[in-house]
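Per reviewer request, we include the raw input and output of the structure prediction for the construct analysed in the revised manuscript.
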Amino acid sequence: MGYIERRERLLAAAAEVFKDQGLDATSISDIAERMGADRASVYYYYGSKQEIFLALVRQAVEEIVLACESIAGSGESATIRLQRLVESQLEAYERHYPFIHLYIQEDMNRVPGDGTTAGEELKALGLRYEAAIERLTRDGVTSGEFRSDLDARLVMFAILGAVNWTHRWYREGARGMAS
Protein backbone atom coordinates (compact mmCIF):
# COMPACT_ATOMS: atom_id res chain seq x y z
CA MET A 1 0.00 0.00 0.00
CA GLY A 2 1.39 3.38 -0.98
CA TYR A 3 1.83 6.53 1.07
CA ILE A 4 -1.37 8.20 -0.19
CA GLU A 5 -3.47 5.06 0.27
CA ARG A 6 -2.24 4.62 3.86
CA ARG A 7 -2.88 8.29 4.62
CA GLU A 8 -6.42 8.00 3.21
CA ARG A 9 -6.99 4.89 5.32
CA LEU A 10 -5.78 6.82 8.37
CA LEU A 11 -8.13 9.72 7.60
CA ALA A 12 -11.07 7.34 7.16
CA ALA A 13 -10.32 5.67 10.50
CA ALA A 14 -9.92 9.04 12.20
CA ALA A 15 -13.23 10.27 10.77
CA GLU A 16 -15.01 7.26 12.25
CA VAL A 17 -13.42 7.75 15.68
CA PHE A 18 -14.06 11.51 15.72
CA LYS A 19 -17.68 10.89 14.72
CA ASP A 20 -18.15 8.26 17.44
CA GLN A 21 -16.24 9.96 20.26
CA GLY A 22 -15.84 13.64 19.35
CA LEU A 23 -12.57 15.52 19.03
CA ASP A 24 -11.85 15.98 22.73
CA ALA A 25 -12.35 12.33 23.67
CA THR A 26 -10.33 10.95 20.76
CA SER A 27 -6.67 10.08 21.15
CA ILE A 28 -3.98 9.21 18.64
CA SER A 29 -4.08 5.70 20.13
CA ASP A 30 -7.81 5.45 19.30
CA ILE A 31 -7.11 6.42 15.69
CA ALA A 32 -4.19 3.99 15.43
CA GLU A 33 -6.29 1.18 16.88
CA ARG A 34 -9.17 1.82 14.46
CA MET A 35 -6.68 1.90 11.59
CA GLY A 36 -5.03 -1.34 12.76
CA ALA A 37 -1.66 0.35 13.17
CA ASP A 38 0.54 1.77 15.90
CA ARG A 39 0.81 5.36 17.12
CA ALA A 40 4.10 5.88 15.28
CA SER A 41 2.32 5.17 11.99
CA VAL A 42 -0.20 7.90 12.72
CA TYR A 43 2.53 10.37 13.71
CA TYR A 44 4.36 9.59 10.48
CA TYR A 45 1.54 11.32 8.61
CA TYR A 46 0.27 13.90 11.10
CA GLY A 47 1.69 15.64 14.15
CA SER A 48 -1.54 15.81 16.19
CA LYS A 49 -5.17 14.83 16.26
CA GLN A 50 -6.06 18.47 15.55
CA GLU A 51 -4.00 18.35 12.36
CA ILE A 52 -5.86 15.19 11.31
CA PHE A 53 -9.21 16.77 12.11
CA LEU A 54 -8.43 19.90 10.14
CA ALA A 55 -7.20 17.85 7.18
CA LEU A 56 -10.52 16.02 7.15
CA VAL A 57 -12.68 19.11 6.98
CA ARG A 58 -10.65 21.80 5.18
CA GLN A 59 -11.25 20.73 1.58
CA ALA A 60 -14.98 20.13 2.07
CA VAL A 61 -15.47 23.47 3.83
CA GLU A 62 -13.63 25.34 1.08
CA GLU A 63 -15.85 23.76 -1.56
CA ILE A 64 -19.02 24.65 0.34
CA VAL A 65 -17.98 28.27 0.89
CA LEU A 66 -17.03 28.77 -2.77
CA ALA A 67 -20.37 27.33 -3.90
CA CYS A 68 -22.24 29.55 -1.43
CA GLU A 69 -20.40 32.67 -2.62
CA SER A 70 -21.03 31.78 -6.25
CA ILE A 71 -24.76 31.25 -5.70
CA ALA A 72 -25.12 34.37 -3.54
CA GLY A 73 -23.37 36.47 -6.18
CA SER A 74 -25.32 35.16 -9.16
CA GLY A 75 -27.83 37.38 -10.94
CA GLU A 76 -30.85 35.28 -10.04
CA SER A 77 -33.62 36.44 -7.76
CA ALA A 78 -32.89 36.29 -4.04
CA THR A 79 -35.60 33.67 -3.57
CA ILE A 80 -34.07 31.37 -6.19
CA ARG A 81 -30.55 31.97 -4.82
CA LEU A 82 -31.67 31.10 -1.30
CA GLN A 83 -33.32 27.90 -2.51
CA ARG A 84 -30.23 26.94 -4.54
CA LEU A 85 -27.95 27.77 -1.63
CA VAL A 86 -29.80 25.50 0.81
CA GLU A 87 -29.99 22.68 -1.75
CA SER A 88 -26.30 23.08 -2.58
CA GLN A 89 -25.28 23.00 1.08
CA LEU A 90 -27.31 19.89 1.85
CA GLU A 91 -25.97 18.11 -1.25
CA ALA A 92 -22.42 19.03 -0.21
CA TYR A 93 -23.04 17.80 3.34
CA GLU A 94 -24.16 14.46 1.91
CA ARG A 95 -21.25 14.30 -0.53
CA HIS A 96 -18.73 15.10 2.20
CA TYR A 97 -20.24 12.98 4.94
CA PRO A 98 -18.89 12.42 7.61
CA PHE A 99 -16.35 15.27 7.29
CA ILE A 100 -18.87 18.12 7.36
CA HIS A 101 -20.71 16.28 10.12
CA LEU A 102 -17.46 16.39 12.11
CA TYR A 103 -16.88 20.06 11.35
CA ILE A 104 -20.35 21.10 12.49
CA GLN A 105 -20.43 18.68 15.43
CA GLU A 106 -17.37 20.32 16.96
CA ASP A 107 -17.41 23.92 18.10
CA MET A 108 -14.78 25.20 15.70
CA ASN A 109 -13.98 28.10 18.02
CA ARG A 110 -12.75 25.52 20.53
CA VAL A 111 -10.62 23.49 18.14
CA PRO A 112 -7.07 24.28 19.16
CA GLY A 113 -4.52 25.25 16.58
CA ASP A 114 -2.22 22.65 15.14
CA GLY A 115 0.81 24.90 14.78
CA THR A 116 -0.36 25.99 11.33
CA THR A 117 -2.86 28.54 10.13
CA ALA A 118 -5.49 25.88 9.38
CA GLY A 119 -7.75 26.81 12.30
CA GLU A 120 -7.65 30.47 11.32
CA GLU A 121 -8.31 29.54 7.69
CA LEU A 122 -11.41 27.58 8.68
CA LYS A 123 -12.61 30.48 10.81
CA ALA A 124 -12.12 32.88 7.87
CA LEU A 125 -14.01 30.51 5.58
CA GLY A 126 -16.88 30.45 8.09
CA LEU A 127 -17.03 34.24 8.09
CA ARG A 128 -17.10 34.30 4.28
CA TYR A 129 -19.95 31.77 4.33
CA GLU A 130 -21.93 33.90 6.77
CA ALA A 131 -21.27 37.08 4.76
CA ALA A 132 -22.56 35.48 1.54
CA ILE A 133 -25.82 34.40 3.18
CA GLU A 134 -26.25 37.77 4.84
CA ARG A 135 -25.65 39.56 1.50
CA LEU A 136 -28.24 37.34 -0.20
CA THR A 137 -30.76 38.16 2.52
CA ARG A 138 -30.12 41.89 2.20
CA ASP A 139 -30.58 41.60 -1.57
CA GLY A 140 -33.97 39.96 -0.98
CA VAL A 141 -35.04 42.76 1.35
CA THR A 142 -33.82 45.45 -1.07
CA SER A 143 -35.55 43.84 -4.05
CA GLY A 144 -38.82 43.49 -2.12
CA GLU A 145 -38.81 39.68 -2.32
CA PHE A 146 -38.36 39.39 1.45
CA ARG A 147 -40.11 41.40 4.15
CA SER A 148 -38.64 44.84 4.64
CA ASP A 149 -38.33 44.42 8.41
CA LEU A 150 -36.08 41.36 8.25
CA ASP A 151 -32.76 41.56 10.02
CA ALA A 152 -30.30 40.07 7.53
CA ARG A 153 -27.92 38.83 10.21
CA LEU A 154 -30.71 37.16 12.17
CA VAL A 155 -32.01 35.47 9.00
CA MET A 156 -28.47 34.29 8.23
CA PHE A 157 -28.26 32.64 11.67
CA ALA A 158 -31.68 31.03 11.15
CA ILE A 159 -30.59 29.57 7.80
CA LEU A 160 -27.31 28.35 9.27
CA GLY A 161 -29.16 26.80 12.19
CA ALA A 162 -31.61 24.98 9.95
CA VAL A 163 -29.02 23.70 7.48
CA ASN A 164 -26.32 22.90 10.00
CA TRP A 165 -28.65 21.03 12.34
CA THR A 166 -28.74 18.16 9.81
CA HIS A 167 -25.60 16.78 11.44
CA ARG A 168 -27.82 15.72 14.34
CA TRP A 169 -30.09 13.45 12.32
CA TYR A 170 -28.52 12.74 8.93
CA ARG A 171 -27.06 9.28 8.31
CA GLU A 172 -25.39 8.43 5.02
CA GLY A 173 -27.62 6.46 2.67
CA ALA A 174 -30.70 6.81 4.90
CA ARG A 175 -33.85 8.74 4.15
CA GLY A 176 -35.44 10.79 6.89
CA MET A 177 -34.32 10.84 10.49
CA ALA A 178 -31.87 8.39 11.93
CA SER A 179 -32.86 6.24 14.85
